[in-house]
Amino acid sequence: MPCHRVMRFIQISDTHLFGNEGQHLLGVDTEATLQAVIDLMAEENEVSGIIASGDISQDGSLKSYQRFHVMLRTLGVPVYWIPGNHDNSANFHQLPVDFPLSRRSVIEAGKWRILLLDSVIPGEDSGHLAETELEYIEKNINNDGLHYMLVLHHQPIPCGSAWLDTMILDNSKEFISLISTKPCVRAVLNGHIHQSNQQDIESISFISTPSTCFQFTPQTSQFSLDSLMPGYRRLLLKDDGSIETEVVRVADFDLNIEHTREGY
Asked: How far apart are CA 43 and CA 143, in angstroms?
């Protein structure tokens, strides 16, 4: 009988690390919450890679990326990343001296190919896939018997929170129209919304993951922080193109969230 492989990946997102120790965001120690998530991830077996879907840094500093690298390398698993609106996206395309994270690459994993995309508009919270990114998709998706998963920071479809959906991918129609012509595209992952969500449109699953720090309350019209714990998403990619996925959360953590804040 044929052996059906399962490629195991973990998605984390929106770590919002600072360059200096001891800094907090909305009352949350983002380094401590990331460490709690890493401790939980250490219990996973046979992980092919960790995908960090943006907003690794809150301040864009080299030190924050160095801290992220040092924390994640304890897992001994390859780490792939994309930029978010709080990151310096230039680092994604041309690595500066001493930058600790890897250059963009196509991830080859058994019967799967994973593309990492840059949806950042420098200085803006909303996203856009530049023509070069759309060309990157065209160039790297082939009718070669593989299944494809795409990763970007900004949500390409509305998540149902009116204030977050003002910061959606602004050329989402063009993006979805493009990938809809590619039957081998199975999934699109995003970060940005600090929520767990999954919507299937025809044969494509659109999937988001919780933040490793604080969460946004789903289905809200204005900025609102949820009480759910930090977490990550487990992704089991099967040879037949199906995906088995679930969110795993830290059991308990004193987040000390500043619920009275109206943004950050």
From this structure: 36
Residues 83-110 have pLDDT tens digits of 999 999 999 998 888 899 998 999 999 9
Detail the DSSP E strand segments found in 209-257. Answer: 231-238, 243-249
Mean pLDDT of 7-29: 96
Q: Which residue bears the tokens 């199975």?
A: 186
Enter the tokens of residue 120. 């950042």
CA distance 110 to 112: 5
Residues 209/189, Cβ–Cβ less than 8 Å: yes
| 2: amino acid identity, one letter | P
Angle at 105 between CA 47 and CA 13, to 5 degrees: 55
Q: How far apart are CA 254 and CA 20, in angstroms?
A: 21
Using 50, 70 and 90 to split pLDDT, how confident is the model at 1? very low
CA–centroid distance for 149 within its chain: 12
Q: Which residue has the tokens 């992704």?
A: 235
Look at residues 233, 227, 166 and name the one whose alpha carbon lies nearest to residue 198: 233
Bridge partners of 108, per DSSP, are: 113
Using pLDDT thresholds of 50, 70 and 90, give the confidence band for residue 3.
Answer: low
The percent helix, strand, coil of the chain (3-state, each to 5) is 20, 25, 55
